[in-house]
Amino acid sequence: MSSPSIAFGVIAPQNSAGGYLRLSAPLRTWLPVLAFSMVFAIESTSYLGADRTSAPLQRIAEAIFGYDVCAHWDLIHHIIRKAGHFMGYGVFSLICFRACWIELRGMASQLSRQMRAHGLAILATFLVASADEIHQNFLPNRSGQFSDVLLDCSGAAALGLALLLVMQVMEGRRKAKTDTRRGLEPGYTGASA
After folding, report:
1. Is 102 among the domain residues?
2. Please, is 4 exposed, middle or buried when counting C-beta atoms within 10 Å of its C-beta (0-12, 13-18, 19+)?
3. Residue 2 located in a structural domain
4. Residue ranges of E strands in 5-76
5. Which among 48, 50, 74 is positioned nearest to 61, based on CA atoms?
6. Mean pLDDT of the region 42-53
7. Band of the pLDDT at 72, cuts 50, 70, 90?
8. Cα(40)–Cα(91) distance, integer angstroms
């Protein structure tokens, strides 16, 4: 029996006969999205507001960089939190891209499939980020801001663009390798000049 895919598989428990219990395909596809959404649900509580994260992060920064960080700590803490928004939702968008990529596997055009999966991933990021900010409006020590939604979507777009570029480079290399194996010049289209 083959092992689960390393890139897109889920570690599945084994049954008593030693084989893998199969998780349904939609569950394997969307479970990572759901799991990462739970991270946002935990992060969006009043326990992880700026008033609660400032002191522990300041102690860590002081241990690494010395006490000089105290003079500019409010700005540094703000940057750390906003960078967390940017990267966290950027990674969430990549996980959503993976799920959409799997769901759209029947599309004929590779580029069209990539663009649609990225668009859906950014839309999902916008919806989750908006829900997160709306939820924060109801917490005593948090405030929802549309600027955070824009920052989250910027992270999604930036990491999505980086992934799109990497995928295009890998596809070009794969095609060049295939052309070389066939004995053709890389980039040969078969049309005469």
Report:
1. yes
2. middle
3. no
4. none
5. 74
6. 86
7. confident
8. 12
CB distance 159 to 90 below 8 Å: yes
Q: Could you give the CA distance from residue 77 to residue 81 in angstroms, rounded to a whole number?
A: 6
Residues in CB range of 123: below 8 A, 6 or more apart: none
Q: Are 130 and 149 in contact (CB under 8 A)?
A: yes
Tell me how many domains the chain contains.
Answer: 1
188 has a pLDDT exceeding 80: no
Burial of 6 (0-12, 13-18, 19+ CB in 10 A): exposed
Binned at pLDDT 50, 70 and 90, residue 185 comes out as low
Nearest in space to 132 (alpha carbons), one of 140, 144, 118, 123: 144
26 strand-pairing partners: none
> 155 exposed, middle or buried (CB, 10 Å; 0-12, 13-18, 19+)?
buried
The pTM (predicted TM-score) of the whole model is 0.77
Pairwise CA distance, residues 187 & 146, whole Å: 46
Domain limits for position 94: 25-41+86-178
pLDDT for 67 equals 81
Is 90 exceeded by the pLDDT of residue 38?
Answer: yes
Q: What is the mean pLDDT of residues 98-118?
A: 92
Say if 78 falls within a structural domain: no
Contact 128, 120 (CB under 8 A): no
Residue 61 lies in a domain: no
Q: What is the residue-averaged pLDDT of the chain? A: 84
